[in-house]
Amino acid sequence: MSHIDGKRNATFKTLESSARMRELMTGYFRDLNRAALEGRPKIAWCSSVGPAELLLSLGYAVFYPENHAAMLGATREARKTIPVANAAGYSPDICSYLTSDIGAFLRKETPLSRVSPEIFTVPRPDVLVYNNVQCRDVQEWFSWYGREFAVPVLGVATPRNVAELTAELLAGIAGQIRALVAPLEKIAGRRFDIDRLRAAMSLSREGSGLWKRVLEANRGRPAPLSFFDAAVHMGPAVVLRGTEEALAYYRVLLREVEDRVARGEGAVEGERFRLYWEGMPIWGKLRDLAEFFIGLRTNIVASTYCNSWIFESGDDANPFLGLARSSAGLFIARDEDAKERYLRDMAEKYDVHGFIFHDAKTCPHNSNSRYGLPGRLEKATGIPTLTIHGDVNDLRCYSEDQTRTAVEAFVERLEEG
Question: Distance between CA 135 and CA 93 in Å, rounded?
Fold first, then answer.
């Protein structure tokens, strides 16, 4: 069949901006390592959708354990580190970001050594700050490190299954974030300045706007990026949120992507089908899956995951309210009806032919195939859906043969119309 033949020419196109991104990320990790060695600035660990801008406004260097865990997955080091955390009493059924990261710490290993040889360990935190909007696991993860390092752990509890972003809901979350100021001031040895917070949030919004424009370039045909490109190039959007460095990088990337659009160059040669990826990446199979879909001349042009780092909410009069809106408005926090509306809108926006739902074994809160959403979505839109089973980091939960067979059958279904 035509899509089988196409697999012989699966050429992955590397973006020229990749070298710039590696340089930027290396600098970020080296700066954190230096701060840990010198004891200044203070270091805060922050969950990926935690109040990073507040931490930046108080002068903290910010480290993101979820990014570190994704690196363990991408390098496949997680295969060695997850069992160590399991042996320490952490179930194989809970978040494999948590287990791979704690296991790596117990093994005294870090993928940051591959980034820069002088980095031997994660930077020692002075405080850990989480938002449990993703799941309970992030709270347990940070609490483990709080006990290990004997440092404070501060948190925000964001409701999930949210239907509407009511004033009462947002005020409650904003109040929790505001309550973090006093203990964070004490640890930082620095007074809070609301104008610094406004400045950090302004940079976040501007960076998010550039990242959004990068992703929206995929509305064109052929799409200049794939989901697999975006999952990598979102790195600065995660760890450098609220900084000038992120803005500078995304201006460079946006120019390259727009150049591809102008030349009619797609990430997938001979693009036939356009798919949407709902759920977490399978980090240890990112490159393999990218080449597999290229061989099928099928591009995954959009995803919930990569769009989750677009923080456009702002309120200069009350920046705490803006932080609350960014948190509660995330796809993961919303109810099933809101999620379905979002996916329907994205399907129309990116003109997709099908949805792939990734049911990640250890990440139930980011697996949206478990309560009938794929079936409802297909019935409402007429767009076919496929659910594949795997995990973010634990490749024991993933069958390559089963996944490839299921995807090939799905593409055949699209060919048949």
Answer: 14
Asked if 350 and 218 touch (Cβ cutoff 8 Å), the reply is: yes
**pLDDT tens sequence across 66-95:** 999 999 999 999 999 999 999 999 999 999
pLDDT in tens, 13-72: 899 999 999 999 999 999 999 999 999 999 999 998 899 999 999 999 999 999 999 999
Report the candidate in 182, 258, 242 with the shortest Cα–Cα distance to residue 206.
242
pLDDT at 281: 97
For 290-319, b/e burial (b = at least 16 CB within 10 A) is: bebbbbbbbbbbbbbbbbbbbbebbbeeeb
Going from the C-alpha of 355 to that of each of 21, 258, 331, 367, 380, the distances in angstroms are 29, 25, 16, 13, 13
d(C-alpha 21, C-alpha 150), whole Å: 34
**CB–CB of 57/241 below 8 Å?**
no
For 64, the token pair is 């993101």
Strand-by-strand arrangement of the 153-156 sheet:
61-63, 43-46, 127-131, 153-156
Nearest to 381 by CA among 303, 301, 296, 276: 276
In whole angstroms, what is the distance from residue 167 CA to residue 184 CA? 26
- pLDDT tens per residue across span 206-240: 999 999 999 999 999 999 999 999 999 999 999 99
In b/e form, how buried is each residue of 42-74, taking b as 16+ CB within 10 angstroms? bbbbbbbbbbbbbbbbbebbbbbbbbbbbbbbb
Q: Per residue in 274-333, pLDDT tens? A: 999 999 999 999 999 999 999 999 999 999 999 998 887 766 688 999 999 998 999 999
Question: Could you tell me which of 279, 274, 335 has the C-alpha nearest to residue 299?
Answer: 274
Give kind and range of the element (H or E) at residue 63. strand 61-63
CA distances from 360 to 54, 293, 335, 416 (A): 31, 19, 19, 29
Give the single-character DSSP code of 334.
Answer: B
Please answer whether residues 355 and 343 qualify as being in contact, where contact means their C-beta atoms are separated by less than 8 angstroms: yes
pTM of the predicted structure, to 2 decimals: 0.94
Name the residue type at position 166. T
Q: Count CB-CB contacts under 10 A for residue 264.
A: 10
Mean pLDDT of 155-173: 93
